[in-house]
Each structure stands twice: as C-alpha cells, then as structure tokens.
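Raw record, unedited: Anti-sigma factor antagonist
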Amino acid sequence: MGFVIPCVDDPSILKPSGLLDAQSGADLRASIATLLQETSGDILIDCQGIDFMDSSGFGALVAVLKRVREHGKQLYLCSLNSQVRIVLELTGTEKVFTIFPDQEACLRSLSVDRTA
C-alpha cells in the first residue's frame, strides 16, 4: 500500500502507491484508523504513487474523508494524476476534497494558515 512519514507537526503524510482498489482501499482505511488513534493532527494523502484508482478505491477515499472529519480533523490530497483527478471531477467530489498540486504547496498553505 504505502507508508506513513512521521511528522512532528501535522499533517501526517500517507503515500499510497500502485493500484487503489478494494484491497488497497481496505489498507488505506486501516492506515487512516491507526493515524486517527496515534496522532492529533490532520492527514495528507500524497497520491503521486497511485497508478490507477477503481470504484472501490474511490469508495475507500470517500469513506476515509468521512472518518477523518468525524474525528474533527482535515484530510488533504495532493499530487493527483489525471485519472484520479478525472474520477473526482466526474463524481463532483473534487469540490469536497481539499486538493493541492503537491506536498510542498499543501505544507506551505497550512503553514501560512496557522500563522495568520
């Protein structure tokens, strides 16, 4: 699936890779559940390593967003490839997720937001 880059500051960064399908979607949900128990900050999913996302993977992403919000935290996405972006656009969920072009843009934006 991917791995979590430990962060002293938030957000914690999760970097899934390969195919985001039913199995890896379950892994993503489990990773997010662990992060929600172990960290107090927000979560960034860096999608750079995702080659393809099917409908099960999309469902997992939506479920993860809901779970993170239920815990009063924010979920950010970055580095979407064109296929993942198209799925989000076709479903209208690109307006629901907070999306950044890359990790640096996300971290820079969050840094500015927190100092303002």
